[in-house]
Amino acid sequence: MKLINSFKHAIEGLISAASAEENMKVHFIVMLCVIVLGIIVKLSEMEWIICIMLFGIVISAEIFNTALERAMDYINDDYDEDIKFIKDTSAAAVLVAAVASAVIGLMIFLPKLL
User: Is the pLDDT of residue 21 over 90?
Assistant: First the structure.
């Protein structure tokens, strides 16, 4: 029963993050587009593995960022330079993961599209 509740809470967290964060919606839309394009260009098994790993990394980074931002707002909703630093660097982690994923995606898809 504990395991089932753990999965239930995790799924609720994913749904909450997806519904509360605009950036999460963008990540899911991009993921859907990559999946559709991957089917069209017939990605290899290894290319699918890479794409799925990248989806997981970017979505996980965004969830961590969302949780950290919410925690910082809970601790102090007034402007604070240290909290700004925490939020900015957390967002930067998502940006790094997303840009790296986009570059890898271009390396996979451009040769198939040109």
Answer: no
